[in-house]
Amino acid sequence: MIIIEPFGGLANRMRVIASALWLQKKLDCEVTCVWSQNQDLNAEFDFLFEKIDGLNIKKKSYKFKYLKSTKYKKYLKLYVTILINKIIGIDYYIKEHDYLDQMWTDSIDIETIARKYKNIYIKTCEEFGDNYLEFQQFIPINSILTKMSDIVSQFESNTIGLHIRRTDNMQSIIYSPLELFIDTINSSIEKDENVNFFLSTDDIEVENELISKFGKRIIKQKKEFSRQSVVGMQDAVVDLFCLSKTSIIYGSYWSSFSDIASRIGRIDFISLKK
């Protein structure tokens, strides 16, 4: 059995789940997703997406708080770790720290670990494996699809997607300033007078500035910007899947949102970075 505990924002969690679905196909095993509501994403999974076959969504059991990372233990510490995890029902526990220690050098071979151990627990916001096709399994609930349909009906074949991340993402703010997006918009208009743009952003001031500059060329949804409400998270799903319906996405550096949208739509994504 594979248990995953994805954390972080919407796109981060989706890429972990997609990775687990890839692993499930490789091993033909059961996958359980421990889904937590917090300041990064305060909505239940089934308030956002339809049920995915073979994926069980559960709330975190109190006992999982006592799990200890299986890696980097020696002798007595390793024995104690194995004993504690066995009592909880887990044979191998991989946490985010394990990824951060190795992801830039040699990758953790999740498939080999999953074949060797019966019950593994993975807590991360990172992805693993060849998960590209698994994003097609995410289907938004009907109310979200309806809102998406109204927005996408304004798209043309040349509509360009813009994802401008701000608020708490300092890397995006520093390396992907608004000026880069404005330059890209102007350049696109010079090439095609009829082009328009779907805008996804978490900053109302950015939204207002682009609308003031480019008027009706900017398509956007009327939304709630907060991650702290179900409506706000549903609107984030609308943005994500509307981006996936554009012809190409220009997005912010160090944000997985644009990247995941491009994978859903199987379209090109260009990260704008100074």
**Biggest pleated-sheet summary:** 5 strands, parallel
Low-confidence stretches: none
The end-to-end span amounts to 44 Å
Rg: 20 Å
Task: State which percent range the strand residues make up.
Answer: 15-25%
Give me the number of helical elements.
10
SS-derived structural category: alpha/beta
Question: Can you characterise this structure?
Answer:
The structure is a single chain. Helices cover about 40% and strands about 15% of the residues. By secondary structure, it is α/β, with parallel strands linked by helices. It has 2 domains: about 1-135; about 140-270, Rossmann fold. It has a 5-stranded parallel sheet with strand order 3-2-1-5-4. The protein has a 5-stranded parallel sheet with strand order 8-7-6-9-10, with helices on both faces. Helix 5 (about 140-150) packs across helix 9 and helix 9 packs across helix 10. The longest helix is centred in the first third of the chain and has 18 residues, at about 10-25. The chain is elongated and about 65 Å long.
List the helices and strands and how they pair.
Elements: E1 2-6, H1 10-27, E2 31-34, E3 55-58, H2 75-88, E4 92-94, H3 96-102, H4 110-116, E5 120-124, H5 142-152, E6 160-164, H6 170-175, H7 178-191, E7 197-201, H8 204-214, E8 218-219, H9 230-243, E9 248-252, H10 256-265, E10 269-272
Parallel strand pairs: 1-2, 1-5, 2-3, 4-5, 6-7, 6-9, 7-8, 9-10
Short description:
By secondary structure, the protein is an alpha/beta fold. It is built from 10 helices and 10 strands.
Kindly list the characteristics that best describe this protein.
2 domains; Rossmann fold; alpha/beta; 5-stranded parallel sheet; elongated; 274 residues
